[in-house]
Amino acid sequence: METLRIFNENYQQIGEMSREEVHWTGTWHETFHLWILTVEEDKEYIHFQVRSQSKKDFPGLLDITSAGHLLASEKKEDGLREVREEIGLLLELQELDYIGLLNDELLLEDFQDREMCHTYFYRAAAEIWVSYRFNEEVQGMVKIEKKAFRQLWQGEINKIEGTSLSHKGDESDGKSVSLTKRDFVPHSDSYMRRVLNAI
């Protein structure tokens, strides 16, 4: 069982709770988020992981490049463990740019996720695209032009194109995929605004 630190709205620790309980009760807890960007032909791209179909929450949807819960015994820099496990990259904290501690609330009928997110971004070389190695929680990656994603999230357009990288290097690699906002995990607008303004 994973045990997490829990907090009040002022980021004061008030105890510990299991991962299952924090999502039942909607209690604030810590996570680590990493957004990876590349620049190719003068265009900026954000890399989104495709969540595995076996995931309990939001299977098959596009999400933050790499993210995970921080256990009660972990510090924010330990979130790099998630990056290594999910997408196979060995990064050091000093290589990343810190956006800040951002609140993100995903409140659904049977799921209340209130996260205090230690949020980072990493400007990578374009070649990183072929360096990903996915675990069972990630079925692939899609890179999307940052400008287009911002327009989609803000409701200015209804559909965008991305470039797919599959889990097994099959025939879907490098293919264009058509996406709407419903293809993404529904992070809060306030969180996404902070991220998009920072990166």
Automatic annotation (TrEMBL):
GO molecular function per UniProt: isomerase activity
Does Plastid show up as a keyword for this record?
Answer: no
Domain of life where this protein originates: Bacteria
Q: Which UniProt keywords apply?
A: Isomerase
Signal peptide residue numbers = none
Name recorded for this polypeptide: Isopentenyldiphosphate isomerase
